[in-house]
Specification:
With 93 residues, this protein is of the alpha/beta class. The chain is built from 2 helices and 3 strands.
Length: 93
């Protein structure tokens, strides 16, 4: 059985940049899934022995509960990486 060691976790489709080459496209880039839902998924991933989570998007830095989500990921002993194209990233972790 193959076990995943790392995953790309698509946190949101929202992005303010709307780059013409983006694979998501420029339509319907609104809203974010709930924090509660993400928390459950992250906990299941940790149980499955995933070691690294890459937060991607849209723009994962636009997710309003980014800091508490990162805190949960770190508390579960996972490494977290944020792949973003934002220039407006101001958070203290």
């Amino acid at each position: 059985m193959i076990k995943l060691k790392s995953i790309a976790f698509h946190l949101t489709f929202y992005c303010e940049n709307k780059c013409p080459y983006c694979y998501i496209g420029n339509e319907e880039r609104v809203g974010h899934p709930s924090f509660k839902k993400f928390k459950r998924v992250i906990e299941k991933l940790a149980e499955g022995e995933v070691e690294k989570i890459f937060l991607v998007g849209g723009n994962p830095c636009s997710y309003l509960d980014l800091k508490p989500l990162i805190e949960i990921i770190k508390k579960l002993g996972l490494k977290v990486y944020i792949l973003s194209n934002t220039l407006n990233f101001m958070i203290s972790l």
